[in-house]
Specification:
Blueprint: E1 7-8, E2 13-15, H1 19-29, H2 43-60, E3 64-68, E4 77-82, E5 91-96, H3 106-122, E6 127-131, H4 136-144, E7 148-149, E8 163-167
Antiparallel strand pairs: 1-2, 2-3, 3-4, 4-5, 6-8, 7-8
Length: about 170
């Protein structure tokens, strides 16, 4: 059993997904908010996706953290790394589950903490982010994190038309 590390920033806690996160995550995945990311899901699909969020840590030794405002509250989003097949470059992801948390720098703060952790502890040689052009908030996060737009790289099959960004991970 792998232990998911907890990361604390000035305002946020990045931690393992917990049962209390399932309801807000499912509501997010069933909402129109995901139109700029992956498309809406049924309740079953959202629950399955949450289980993938949990299991990724065991399968790959890294994954995505839930973003929380304090130790007792349910999550407000997630960030971290996704690698569905071993022959693909890990993808750095970030999202806030509700519009009420946008515009406060939470996504950038959390994604930066995850990237810093990857640089120090995960041994990943390359990380990418795939962002749809209409998702201007995520494009700004990628730029704030110092990602480099790579028009020479194709987005993965599950995100056709997305822009691919490359992150400097290894020193």
């Amino acid at each position: 059993m792998i232990t998911v590390p907890t990361i604390r920033t000035d305002r946020l806690i990045l931690r393992a997904p917990e049962v209390q996160d399932l309801a807000p995550y499912t509501a997010y995945r069933m909402s129109e908010r995901v139109a700029l990311a992956s498309g809406t899901m049924t309740e079953f699909e959202a629950n399955r996706s949450f289980m993938e969020l949990v299991g990724h840590w065991t399968a790959r030794g890294f994954g995505r953290w839930v973003i929380a405002l304090d130790d007792a509250s349910a999550g407000i989003g997630h960030t971290g790394f996704l690698q569905m097949t071993p022959d693909t470059v890990p993808e750095h992801t970030w999202t806030l589950w509700s519009a009420e948390y946008e515009g406060q720098g939470y996504a950038t703060e959390a994604a930066r903490a995850a990237l810093d952790y990857a640089r120090a502890h995960l041994g990943l040689s390359q990380v990418q982010a795939n962002v749809y052009p209409a998702n201007t908030a995520s494009l700004r996060v990628a730029e704030r994190l110092g990602a480099r737009l790579r028009p020479d790289l194709e987005a993965p099959d599950y995100m056709p038309g997305a822009l691919t960004y490359d992150f400097q991970v290894a020193a």
